[in-house]
Amino acid sequence: MPVIFANKDNFQESVAQGTVILDFYADWCAPCRMIGPVLVQISEENPDIKVVKVDVDNNIELANQFSVRGIPALFVLKEGKTVAQRAGFMPKNALVNWIKNA
What we know:
102 residues; Glutaredoxin; 36% helix; alpha/beta
C-alpha cells in the first residue's frame, strides 16, 4: 500500500480503519529523512499496516492535537485509536515488531 500524506482535510479518513503507523515529520529533519525510506519499505512489505505521514510545518494543528514535541514522532493507531507512541529513528525490524506488538 502506498504511503498516504495526510492533512486536516483527509486525516480522519486516513487513520480511521486498520493498523496505522502515523509519522509526524519535516523535510528539514535528518532523522525524519532516515526513517522515511524505512516506512516506505514497511508499507510495501506489510499490506496490513497503513503508513500515514503528516508534515508538521504544514499541519501544526494536527501536531498539537497529538502533542508532538519532537520529530520524527511515531504513533500506532488501531481503528483510529492511539495504542503506542515514540519519537526518533528505529531500524526496520524493530519498528515492525513495535507496530505489530502495540
